[in-house]
Known about the structure:
Blueprint: H1 2-24, E1 30-35, E2 41-42, E3 54-59, E4 70-72, E5 76-80, E6 85-88, E7 93-100, E8 106-114, E9 118-124, E10 132-137, E11 144-149, E12 154-159, H2 164-189
Antiparallel strand pairs: 1-3, 1-12, 2-11, 3-5, 4-7, 5-6, 7-8, 8-9, 9-10, 10-11
Helix pairs in contact: 1-2
Amino acid sequence: MKALRKILLALTAIAALLVAYPASVQAVPTMYQYTGNHFNIVTGPPYTKSDFVSGTVTLASPLAANMPLTAVTPLAFSFSDGVQTITGPSTLSFSFFFATDGDGTIIRWNFAVSTTQGLIQSKRSFFGSRPVDVGRMGPFSAGKFGLRDFAPGSWTTTVTAPDAGSSLALLSLSLTALGVVARRFQGAAA
Length: 190
């Protein structure tokens, strides 16, 4: 009887871990994709009015609902302005600030990624401030840039499904171990 209680206690503990595991241990990477509008101001080649800022940023988990403008650190990002593409986080410099609505949708932002060769930036960060998308090639004194004034782009979200395989493997391993322990207890009781 004592052995049966130990087995039931072990099963209860494992069941509790399996219920809590997906929510507390597994991060759910989330990719946010930005699509800007075509530049309306360019200083000439290499930028044209058909270029625009676009790209993705991947975070460890979805942004919270009703989040005020907050700095976040991405797992990865890649942005293009039609002339250059900057990926990271191994670039020279980057910063990401996001604010969300009640559904967790990005409604305000300010991000900039740069290398020694150029900069890509987009902002719609404060009410009344000028929303702008910028692509600029260095050296910065050369003045080669594309700009979209007062017409911010939009964000879409893709939540990556958690790895169900590792949860199933953990469950299978746990049940196998319990079977071995149960047989040992049965053998000892006999």
